[in-house]
Amino acid sequence: MKWEYMEEQVHGCIDVERLNALGEQGWELCGIVPAESLRVLVFKRHKPAHV
After folding, report:
1. Predicted local distance difference test score (pLDDT) of residue 49
2. Interatomic CA distance for residues 13 and 16, integer angstroms
3. The model's pTM
4. Using CA atoms, how far apart are residues 43 and 14, in angstroms rounded to an integer?
5. How many Cβ atoms sit within 10 Å of the Cβ of residue 39?
């Protein structure tokens, strides 16, 4: 099975509604990378069969 990945930069608080919306699209939070003034959220989901 193949995966696709996405990163999203977050300044301040993490928006739970945004996480829920991404989850509905099949994205799974698989990591949080702290940086100086932000956090980078790393998501993965199964790559669609047609890709």
Report:
1. 75
2. 9
3. 0.82
4. 14
5. 15
**DSSP state letters, 1-51:** --EEEEEEEE-SS--HHHHHHHHHTT-EEEEEEE-SS-EEEEEEEEPPTT-
Q: Which amino acid is at 8?
A: E
Q: Which residues contact 8 (CB under 8 A, 6 or more apart)?
A: 40, 41, 43
Hey, what amino acid is at 12?
Answer: G
Residue-level pLDDT at 1: 67
| Identity at 10, one-letter amino acid code | V
Render pLDDT for 19-43 as a digit per residue (tens, 0 to 9). Answer: 999 999 999 999 999 988 899 999 9
